[in-house]
Amino acid sequence: MTFKRNFFSVLYLPLTVLFIILTVGTVGYILLEKANFLDSLYMTVITLTTVGFREVIELDTKGKIFTIFLILMGVGLIGYTISSFSAFFVEGGLTEFMKGRKMEKAIKKLKNHIIICGFGENGSKIAELLKKSKRNVVVVDSKYINEMDNYYHIVGDATDDNILEAAGIREASVLVAALPSDADNIFVSITAKALNKKIKVIAKAKEESSVKKMKLVGIDEVVYLFDISARRIANLIISPHFVNMVDIFSEGDVYLEIAEIDISKNSHIIGKSISEINLKRRTGLLIVAIKKPDGKVYFNPDSDYIFEKHDVLLVMGTREQIEKSDEIFN
Questions:
Q1: pTM (2 decimals)?
Q2: In what side-by-side order are the strands of the sheet with 200-205?
Q3: TM segments (predicted)?
Q4: pLDDT (tens digit, 9 = 90+) per residue, 102-121?
Q5: Of the candidates 130, 127, 131, 157, which has an alpha carbon nearest to the alpha carbon of residue 139?
Q6: Which domains does the chain have, with CATH numbers?
């Protein structure tokens, strides 16, 4: 649930009880003693709170019996209501509520952020790596975990439309479905696509049979965990130094990433060579490969390669270097 819903779910019952007691008492005095609304409400309040103020209604026998009933039934319920409010404030409920309201307002201001549904072993690691890459991340999980305080977060069921809305689904660029159940990952992915047609969805699959189903429903990228594990083990045998180097890049103090940069048709670098734009000196970025519109890829392109419109560059560097390169390319 969101923080707002949590606040009202905690206090809904005691508030309802208080309203019912006040209503019964007020209506009772109006019907039995023919008193006006304000006097009846006042009489109900002083009876329930046992403050001992002067009665404003002269009670007959029926009124006295009703008052006895109201005291016996109401005082205990009022005590329950007061204790519920006290527990909420003493246990930090109000502080948590205000903190949650602040969090929701901050999330509403985000644009092109990444939503991670599920903060288990996979989701928490994904969030950690994305934070190193200085991406805005909103994590969603049904249970509150202390580590979630390191990120924008929503506590609630990720398959609920309202929870995704609270996480800023309409302004997000990517959603990662990392819930424990493949069925839930499929459901949350479909919901995300319905709420934001442009969002890219990446889903985790535990079962091989789920991979095909996920692709059929339109999930952009499916990550089958056992396949990834098998590939890593094989690569540790085939190219151990390369794997270790990648780990250093992704987990070291300086986080390096490989990013795609699309060359727009109006880019001023079209018709220029790699050596002419001198990307390495100006930004520190390394051009790993260039992908052509027809799918052909040129790895480690020569310095005399001439850029063409709709080229896609694969570059490696820090997030700051990648952001700095945008003014050069487009």
A1: 0.62
A2: 152-155, 137-141, 114-117, 174-177, 200-205, 221-224
A3: 7-31, 65-90
A4: 888 899 999 999 999 999 99
A5: 127
A6: 3-93 (1.10.287.70), 110-229 (3.40.50.720), 256-329 (3.30.70.1450)
